[in-house]
Design a protein that fits this description.
- The chain has about 500 residues and is an alpha+beta fold.
- The chain contains two helices and 27 strands.
- It has helices at about 1-50, 450-490, and strands at about 75-85, 90, 95-105, 115-120, 130, 135, 140-145, 155-160, 170-175, 175-180, 210-215, 220, 225-235, 240-250, 255-260, 265-270, 275-285, 290-300, 305-315, 320-325, 330-335, 335-345, 350-360, 370-375, 380-390, 395-405, 410-425.
- It has a five-stranded mixed sheet, with no helix packed on it.
- The chain starts with a helix and ends with a helix.
- About 15% of the residues are buried.
């Protein structure tokens, strides 16, 4: 009996020992399994972060990666929506519906200005806007009569905050939208295009031009400074011209330049139907050929059309026509014919036109003599001669008048006076009736030379004297002309 009790006790003790050992093993197994699960979870999280699918793991000695925090919800997101009002089972192209969207905005409750506008910004739906009504931290937006255009099923809209917060874009996919293409319609003949009426421009800018110009007279004298004044004019319109500029363009013209200032002038703003005057200081060279010079005036503005207005300015050379010499007899006898000569020269660069000469004076037996000499070219010398006879003894006081037209067409005159003493006819001291002058052999039948014969002799002698005087004066005149030509060449 005692031995049986000992055996039962031994079996019970063994059973208790086995039970204790088994509990210890289970505890140890739980401790070793927990780190393995953490390690495996860490590895998956790392793959998700890096996007790698290679399945490689880090060394068993490295630190385990902490589990990432769950992604927080955005500050504003769509919590619910409804689409109502389209006629069929699907929201098809061309159909309209009422779209209602609830948006949770975590920052709405703390915002100072809680007014928000939602605006559709996707081409798949017609552009609509809706004002949000706030309840707690949730906005409700109702878009009415929204037409589905097609081209996608994403419904996207912007949240625009009145207080200036950044715009938020939210998107919701609508599965009820039917985005299948429309059946191909039957081709319809294209209508005849009617040209659209020409639209009148919003702004009618005026045109600008040179209305008038002046340069101080009828012409400009070479070698002298002059002022060119331009009068600008703008036509009608409904807007002002901005930044008007005026420029002079001489092209290939030579002998003309600005005396001072710039060739380009800034005028500024000009209203329609207005005028403005600007001026330029200019000058011509002394050697410029006479005639008309052409200058282009360039006109431009910021908003108008550019234009060019040509102007023409006549240029003349200074007149240098002079009477250089006069030869007149100092003394003549009654009945004697003297000769008067006037020498003139044109030293200018322009011709002298329609030259005529006339002699006038007191005690002239032949007054009113005149001669037409025509045109005298530049650099030409000439002379004119008149005969002088006295009407009575005493003095002849006269003058020679030269009339001509200059390069401007103006009639001008030059005068040269002369004076001549008139003496009585020379007394030869011969009396044809003097008996001493008669031939002793002369008889009634041979009366000798008649009185008129002696008179002819006297007149012949006087004529010879006059011819000699005229020849001598002609030679003196030719000598003086040669001297004047030498002086001109020296100049």
């Amino acid at each position: 009996m005692k031995q049986r009790i000992k055996r039962i006790s031994a079996v019970l003790a063994m059973a208790m020992a086995l039970s204790a050992f088994s509990a210890f093993g289970v505890f140890a197994e739980g401790e070793s399994t927990a780190p393995a699960s953490a390690s495996q979870s860490t590895s998956v999280a790392a793959q998700t972060e890096s996007g790698s699918t290679s399945g490689s793991s880090s060394s068993s000695t490295s630190e385990p990666t902490p589990t990432p925090e769950p992604t927080p919800k955005p500050a504003a997101y769509i919590s619910n929506y409804t689409v109502e009002g389209y006629p069929g089972n699907h929201y098809s192209r061309g159909e309209k519906a009422t779209i209602k969207v609830w948006v949770v905005d975590e920052g709405a409750a703390s915002s100072e200005n809680k007014k928000v506008t939602a605006r559709i910004n996707t081409p798949a739906f017609s552009q609509k806007s809706a004002e949000g009504s706030l309840s707690g931290n949730e906005y409700t937006f109702t878009f009415t009569d929204v037409e589905y255009v097609g081209g996608g099923t994403d419904f996207s809209f912007e949240l625009i905050y009145e207080n200036g917060s950044p715009i938020t874009v939210l998107t919701q996919n609508f599965s009820m939208c039917d985005d299948s293409p429309d059946p191909t319609p039957e081709p319809t003949p294209a209508p005849t295009e009617v040209p659209a009426p020409t639209e009148k421009p919003e702004y009618d800018y005026p045109k600008i031009l040179v209305k008038d110009f002046s340069f101080g007279g009828n012409s400009v004298e070479a070698g002298k400074e002059f002022t060119l004044e331009l009068t600008l004019f703008t036509t009608s319109g409904n807007a002002n011209l901005q930044d008007v500029m005026v420029g002079l363009n001489f092209g290939e013209l030579k002998g003309v330049s600005l005396a001072s200032g710039s060739m380009n002038t800034y005028v500024g703003e000009m209203a329609p139907n207005t005028t403005k005057t600007i001026s330029y200081k200019m000058m011509t060279d002394a050697t410029i050929e006479p005639g008309a010079i052409s200058i282009n005036v360039n006109l431009s503005s910021k908003n108008g059309e550019a234009a060019t207005s040509p102007i023409s300015i006549p240029v003349t050379q200074p007149e240098r026509f002079d009477i250089t010499n006069m030869e007149a007899p100092e003394t003549i006898m009654m009945g004697e014919e003297g000769y008067l000569s006037v020498t003139f020269v044109n030293k200018g660069k322009s011709a002298i036109n329609n030259l005529s000469a006339e002699i006038q004076g007191e005690n002239l037996a032949n007054p009113g003599q005149s001669q037409f000499l025509g045109n005298i070219a530049a650099g030409t010398e000439n002379s004119v001669d008149f005969s002088v006879m006295a009407a009575a003894e005493g003095t002849i006081n006269g003058k020679v008048i030269l009339s001509y037209e200059d390069a401007k067409g103006e009639v001008k005159t030059q005068e040269k006076e002369f004076s001549c003493t008139v003496e009585p006819m020379m007394d030869m001291g011969i009396d044809p009736m003097d008996p001493g002058m008669m031939d002793p052999t002369m008889t009634e039948t041979n009366p000798g030379m008649p009185i008129w014969g002696w008179a002819l002799i006297v007149v012949g002698v006087v004529a010879v004297v006059v011819v000699v005087v005229v020849v001598v004066k002609k030679k003196q005149k030719a000598k003086k002309l040669a001297q004047l030509e030498d002086e001109d060449e020296d100049i």
